[in-house]
Design brief:
heterodimer, A: alpha/beta, 8-stranded mixed beta sheet, B: 294 residues, mainly alpha, 76% helix
């Protein structure tokens, strides 16, 4: 959500204070997208990709989330995963997906989860979702909201099935862990 | 102009009856010099008069001193927001009113009107110092305006005036904080806006300003985070942001209650609920905002 910048100055005149409003600047600041991007960047350090170490480190967003695509693109300009450059892709269509290191599925594309898991089983793709209950049915990471904050659930088995080694630190920080 | 003529006429009358007030020769002389627009000379003489034991408590001597200083201010220092001439004029005219306990001064109206004029100049000068460096002078001038108005205008609403001054200074700091993100400016913005809020918390202006101030801080925390912030620190940053978002909420809700048609407030509420991850309420205010924008 954008940051609001207003200027409310009551200009003094002899007889009265007239309130004048100036919208000075409207700057895009999607707070939720920033937090998710930071979580995703941290996940690149918490999982070990045993394969997929050649070329760019690819993060694909399946579905529409322009805020997140924008934040991840900002991040990719300055950060790397090991020696790999980060590449951000956005697929708003269906399952014509290329292999990625991380695949984020937006809530409106959650119905594609089973197909995605089937397609990328054992291929080292970290699947992240954002809908209640999806960690229980196969997403390795599922974003949830807890006490007004972004948090996440971890499904260790799903991560293993995807061919990823799970770091010890992430387990302690997950809101819920499923085996 | 009419007032100047009245004062000059008064001076002539005063001089015509000079024999009655022989002991007040210095005051008479000052009046004569004032009428001749020899202000510097008039000032020398009247300053001797008000130090003289015979005239130190004479309301006419102080009034004359006030008129002379006022004219000196008008001629030399109208662009000086810390004008010593204006201060001396105000002090002298106030002294004159206070010495005239019996209400005998036939020129009381002129004295009051001169004070009103001086008060208005203090007030108008507030704007000239509305910045982060000289704001204290703006407050000093507002205090001087207040001191005079309380004396000459029984209807003067000191609380309302204080509210106007504090909210103006606070919103000025809020603006500069938004442009610079300086912590000290933020603190000053809060200080003055909360002072205004303490006087009157029932305006959309003050609620909107405070709400936006807290909300923007909440956004800033997230916005400024580096992507390298470790995973275990993320909840801490979020806690701080959420805390500020929750502080913003009651102010913007009240602003919305006072003025439901204010689009900016509705947008602000949508922003807060988004920040707080309260999707249903975010959608509600976003929808309302979109409808208002059509």
């Amino acid at each position: 959500m954008r940051k609001l910048i207003f200027l409310f100055i009551a200009f003094f005149t002899l007889s009265s204070a007239d309130v004048v409003e100036y919208p000075l600047l409207a700057q895009k600041d999607d707070t939720q997208a920033k937090i998710k991007a930071m979580y995703i960047y941290n996940f690149t350090k918490c999982f070990e990709w045993t394969n997929n170490k050649d070329g760019n480190f690819t993060i694909t967003i399946l579905g529409e989330n322009t805020g997140l695509v924008s934040e991840l693109s900002n991040m990719a300009r300055t950060k790397m995963v090991g020696s790999q450059k980060i590449e951000i892709k956005n697929n708003t269509g269906g399952l014509d997906l290329e292999k990625s290191n991380i695949l984020f599925i937006t809530p409106d594309k959650s119905h594609l989860l089973a197909d995605v898991l089937s397609k990328f089983k054992g291929k080292g793709v970290l699947v992240i979702t954002e809908k209640q209950g999806l960690a229980k049915i196969g997403a390795a990471i599922n974003f949830i909201v807890k006490e007004n904050k972004q948090s996440f659930e971890l499904n260790k088995t799903a991560a293993s099935k995807a061919g990823l080694n799970v770091g010890a630190s992430i387990e302690k920080l997950a809101a819920n862990v499923y085996n | 102009m009419k007032r100047v003529k009245n004062i000059a006429l008064f001076c002539l009358l005063f001089m015509a009856t000079g024999n009655i007030f022989a002991q007040f020769s210095k005051v008479e002389k000052a009046m004569s010099l004032y009428s001749d627009k020899k202000l510097d000379s008039a000032l020398l003489v009247i300053n001797q008069a008000v130090k003289n034991s015979e005239t130190v408590k004479d309301y006419q001597a102080w009034m004359m001193r006030g008129f002379i200083y006022k004219e000196l201010y008008k001629v030399n220092e109208t662009k000086n927001v810390t004008s010593p001439y204006r201060d001396s004029a105000s002090v002298s005219l106030i002294q004159s009113l206070e010495l005239d306990a019996q209400n005998q001064n036939p020129q009381k109206t002129n004295t009051t009107q001169s004070l009103k004029y001086l008060a208005s100049t203090y007030h108008n000068d507030i704007n000239k110092n509305l910045d982060t460096v000289y704001y204290k002078q703006a407050i000093i001038n507002s205090d001087k305006h207040k001191a005079i108005m309380k004396l000459i205008d029984p209807a003067f609403n000191e609380n309302k005036y204080n509210y106007d001054v504090f909210s103006t200074v606070g919103s000025m700091f809020e603006r500069w904080y938004e442009l610079t993100t300086s912590k000290s400016l933020l603190d000053l913005a809060k200080t003055y806006l909360l002072k205004a809020y303490a006087i009157n918390n029932n305006t959309d202006f003050i609620n909107k300003n405070l709400g936006v101030l807290y909300y923007n801080q909440a956004v800033d925390i997230i916005k400024k985070m580096d992507y390298d912030v470790p995973l275990d620190q993320l909840p801490i940053y979020q806690d701080n942001s959420v805390k500020l978002g929750k502080q913003a909420l009651p102010y913007l809700l009240k602003a919305s209650q006072i003025n439901p048609a204010d689009k900016a407030v509705v947008e602000g509420l949508a922003g807060i609920y988004y920040l707080l991850n309260e999707t249903d309420k975010y959608n509600e205010y976003k929808k309302r905002f979109d409808e208002m924008s059509k």
